[in-house]
Amino acid sequence: MPQCIMGRVKPSLLPAGLILLSVSVCVCELECIPGQSGPSYDSLQEVFDRKPFRPAVNLSNPTITNISFTLYAVLGVNEKTQILTTFLWLRLYWFHEFLIWDPEVCDGVSKISLPVLNLWTPDIIVYEFVDDDVSQACPYVYVNHTGHIRYDRMLRLVSACNLEIFSFPFDIQNCTFTFGSYMHTIKDVRVKTALPFEQMSENSKLYLEASGEWELVVILGEEGILNFGIDEWDIITFWVVIKRRPILYVVNLLIPSSFLMIIDILSFYLPPHSVDRASFKMTLILGYTVFLLIMNDLLPSTANGTPIIGIYFSVCLALMVISLLETVIITSVLHHNSMKYREVPHWVQVVVLGYIARLICYSRPPEPKTPEPTKTTDTDPWTISSSHTHSASSLSTNSMCLSGGVAVPELVEICSDLKVMRSHLNVLQREEQIQEQWRHIGYVLDFLLFRIYLLIISCYACVIISMWCIWMYH
Question: Structural domains in the chain?
Answer without folding.
Answer: 3-245 (2.70.170.10), 249-361+450-472 (1.20.58.390)
